[in-house]
Amino acid sequence: METFNDVIAGPGPVLVDFYATWCGPCKMMHPVLEQVKAALGNRLRIVKVDVDRHPDTAAAHGIQTVPTLVLVRGGEVLWRQSGYLSRPDLMAALDPFLQQPAP
């Protein structure tokens, strides 16, 4: 079975959504992430981490607020931002990193 660390250490870009089920902005991000996934397909993997169910993972990544989005490739954090982002804003933030070839 693939672990979280296996996923973020992979060669492709992974967008990690640290969220909580009680968080309103987190609920607003869900359809945005679905739209981004539909638009980008296999160019980006999206993983959701419930901070209440996985507090150690959240703490290991310095998550202090939700939602927090973290873009990782090869175990390296490329970008991170907390709070709600619209689809156009998220696509614009991710675009420069998706243009770069994997190392």
Description:
The protein is of the alpha+beta class and 103 residues long. The chain has four helices and four strands. It has helices at 4-9, 24-40, 55-60, 87-99, and strands at residues 14-19, 45-50, 68-73, 76-82. The protein has a four-stranded mixed β-sheet. It is globular, with a radius of gyration of 13 Å. It starts with a helix and ends with a helix.
The ordered string of helix (H) and strand (E) elements is HEHEHEEH
User: In CATH terms, what is the architecture?
Assistant: 3-Layer(aba) Sandwich
Mean pLDDT reading? 94
How many beta-strand runs? 4
- Helix fraction, binned, reads 40-55%
- The share of residues in extended strands comes to 15-25%
- What general outline do the C-alpha atoms trace? globular
* CATH level 1 name: Alpha Beta
Question: What distance lies between the first and last C-alpha atoms, to the nearest angstrom?
Answer: 25 Å
Q: In terms of per-residue confidence, which ranges show pLDDT below 50 for 5 or more consecutive residues?
A: none
CATH superfamily: Glutaredoxin
> What oligomerization state is this entry in?
single chain
Q: What is the number of domains?
A: 1
What class, by secondary structure content?
alpha+beta
Question: What do we call the CATH topology?
Answer: Glutaredoxin
Helical run tally:
4
Rg over CA atoms: 13 Å
Strand order of the largest sheet: 2-1-3-4
How can the largest sheet be summarized?
Answer: 4 strands, mixed
